[in-house]
Amino acid sequence: MSSWGNAIKISVFGESHGNGIGVVIDGLPAGEKIDFEEVYLQMSRRAPGKDKAATPRLEKDFPEVMSGMLNDTTTGAPLCAIIKNTNTRSQDYGNLAVNPRPAHADYTGYIRYKGFNDIRGGGHFSGRLTAPIVFAGAVCRQILSRRGIKIAAHISSIGNIQDKRFNGTDISKELMERLSKTVFGLIDQSKEEEMRNLIEDCRKNLDSIGGTIECAVVGVPAGVGSPMFYGIENVISSVIFGIPAVKGIEFGAGFASSEMRGSENNDEFYYDGDTVKTRTNHHGGSLGGISSGMPIIFRTAIKPTPSISRPQKTVNLVDHTDSTLEIHGRHDPCIVVRAVPVIEAAAAIAIVNLLAEVQML
Ligand SMILES: Cc1cc2nc3c(=O)[nH]c(=O)nc-3n(C[C@H](O)[C@H](O)[C@H](O)COP(=O)(O)O)c2cc1C
Questions:
Q1: What CATH number is given to the structural domain containing 13?
Q2: Closest Cα to atom 23, ligand 1: which residue?
Q3: pLDDT beyond 70 at 55
Q4: At what angle do helices 36-46 and 336-357 cross, to 10 degrees?
Q5: Whether the model pTM is above 0.90
Q6: Hey, which residues does 296 pair with through a beta bridge?
């Protein structure tokens, strides 16, 4: 379903080429002043056409708040924001209802919704549906920031080109601040050219490329998370998997921890004044699903953009024959760049929920 959450509920609605898309967030604390310049900044990081590696489909992705706010302050009533759809070219999508795109949701959506799903622009499966998620995240991250919690993500790899990783025990405010405002966010900015060249090479070859995004949440106090099924990792993952093109997530040392010994992986405790900290952060800020007070760090795998312009083999769902497909339309050769602010937004939505769950919001 496109509704999620316990203490705070979020519903995302709309289709890529319908009248509009939007979100309802229910259960937010009242009296939270929201800086809309900051909201627009986050939304423009995700918007197409802002980066030269992104799709040229230019849109005014600005949300119109329909309810739940007065004088830019939350009222406690459901907060609803709508983004109108403009600049759509539905004729590019005509044959996909019959010839599903490999790796996209055309085939599974057709089966699940008996052919009634809106296929135009990917319909409800479109990456465009991440705009309302970024709006919701931009509101949530301001509520969190007021409570000393900061969120930032960066492109940790494109193909096999790697950025540096966060230092799990010491992430500077300056780095968090820079990353949370940039479009092509890297820790080691010297990697940008190489990554851009790889993306451009894929575009020229009518191909696409995947990558990973690493996200850090700093300032969550110890003791947040409700195991077994509403722990830090459960809740973050469940929002993250709502983002199209996400194929994996790992916390802290993640899959690499399976190759370690306990003596390497265990993060030893110490007192920093009155605060318990760990000397390393292989656990990624979560032990038993409960926050340890160390930065929560997770990495997400993003697959290559499904829509590539090369001829591909598919099936004709009407004739029941094998067929060939050539995709037109405007598609990013790499989703990773625009997905960075979406991952941050998903983390903000998850953390707001986790805090509300333990009455710490
Ligand atoms: C920000 C963003 C932009 C996307 N843009 C495209 C795109 O231009 N073309 C495309 O085929 N898929 C794009 N996708 C991915 C598809 O929406 C996604 O692969 C598809 O819905 C199938 O879902 P799944 O990959 O999660 O299985 C985008 C995803 C995101 C997060």
A1: 3.60.150.10
A2: 244
A3: no
A4: 130
A5: yes
A6: 217
